[in-house]
Amino acid sequence: MLRLPLALAALLLRALRSPLSVLRWSLAHVWPRLRLVLGRSGPGPGPTPTSVNYHFTRRCNYKCGFCFHTAKTSFELPLEEARRGLAMLRAAGMEKINFSGGEPFLTDRGEFVGKLVQFCKQELKLPSVSIVSNGSLIRERWFKNYGEYLDILAISCDSFDEEVNALIGRGQGKKSHVENLQKLRKWCQEYGVAFKLNSVINRFNVEEDMNEQIKALNPVRWKVFQCLLIDGENVGENALREAEKFVISDEDFERFLDRHRDISCIVPESNQKMKDSYLILDEYMRFLNCRNGRKEPSKSILDVGVEHAIKFSGFDEEMFLKRGGKYVWSKADMKLEW
Ligand code: SF4
Fold it and tell me: For the whole model, what pTM was predicted?
């Protein structure tokens, strides 16, 4: 019983320290707790949503064969509703938001994600705002308008061989994914955004030696994921992909890592580390629980609040910390040596 008043006091304190724009959402979160203290029993608070991945769209212009967030719906929240949800998350303790998809720059030609990035930095004063994108739709004008509000831009790149990219499904027509990468890196440098790379290691790129190209691009972090199967997304009856042929063994993954051991910014994520250590919000702002190998949604935070929905997220806070989920994630704290 002591846990609840203590948690409530902490929440009240946080609310009073929050920027004004967040205050009303903070109070909206204090009230349900207060009701519990005033005589109604119920479970204790869930984990804090310190770092959230918001997949606001499932639509994408690529067709990667292992994609585990496929275009099962084309639903996207109106901008104001998305802002409302983000403010609720901030009030509940969010420090980092990552916008993802689908392809985030597809919605309203990048204006949607640009406005959310600006809102999170300017209004919510979030320490870290980042985007994961395949990079194919980003224009320099976007950096001019919104670059100052973005801490990190992570671009997905699984191979420096265009033929391999084509085999994977990462690409569109004749556009070169690799050439585009150089351009994006240059814009990140010019507009003061930290440049990050994400690679999914799979059957088609597991033998590749990427040392030279990664060193030349010099990202702040290079996240290297082991290809993951999610029932209903990239494997199983209702899935839009058949990713079995992309899967590699733990030993294969280790060999790839060993080949790249001299790259200091590498951050490996095996299936074991990835599993349950991400807080994922889908296009309806529902937490997705992956504990059973498939994505089971909670109710939307917009309907039931963050505190309630997060209890169904399956989030493993300990694994999040163990995989180094908390790092220097604000560009103000990074030494961007461009
Ligand atoms: S770019 Fe990302 S979202 Fe699009 S198909 Fe590939 S993995 Fe899926």
Answer: 0.84
All domains in the chain, ordered by first residue = 54-72+96-296+308-322 (3.20.20.70)
If one compares 37 and 76, the residue with the highest pLDDT of the two is: 76
Atom of ligand 1 nearest to the CA of 102: 3
What is the token pair recorded at 244? 């079995």
**pLDDT tier at 272, thresholds 50, 70, 90:** confident
pLDDT confidence bin for 265, thresholds 50/70/90 = very high
Our answer on whether the CB atom of 101 is closer than 6 Å to any ligand 1 atom is: yes
**Pairing between strand 286-289 and 296-300?**
antiparallel
Long-range contacts: 303-311, Cβ < 8 Å, 24+? 305/28, 305/29, 305/32, 305/88, 306/29, 306/49, 306/88, 306/89, 306/91, 306/92, 307/29, 307/32, 307/33, 307/45, 307/46, 307/92, 308/32, 310/46, 310/47, 310/49, 310/92, 310/279, 311/43, 311/46
Strand partners, 224: 199, 268
Which tens digits make up the pLDDT trace of 280-309?
A: 999 999 999 988 778 899 999 999 999 999
Q: How many angstroms separate the CA atoms of 102 and 105, rounded?
A: 9
Question: In this model, does residue 325 exceed pLDDT 90?
Answer: no
Distance, in Å, from the CA atom of 273 to the CA atom of 48, rounded to the nearest integer, reads: 19
pLDDT at 319 over 90: no
Catalytic annotation present for 67: yes
State the DSSP H helix or E strand holding residue 266, giving kind and residue range, or none if neither.
strand 266-269
Angle at 306 (CA atoms; ends 91, 113), nearest 5 degrees: 70
Total residues found in the chain within this entry: 338
For tokens 């890196």, name the residue. Answer: 185
Is 314 touching ligand 1 by the criterion CB < 6 Å? no
Q: Is the CB of 306 under 6 A from ligand 1?
A: no
CA-based R_g, the chain, Å: 20
**Annotation says 60 is catalytic:** yes
Determine whether 64 is an active site residue. yes
From 98-107, 152-161, 189-198, 273-282, the region with the lowest mean pLDDT:
273-282
Are 68 and 228 within 8 A, CB to CB? Answer: yes
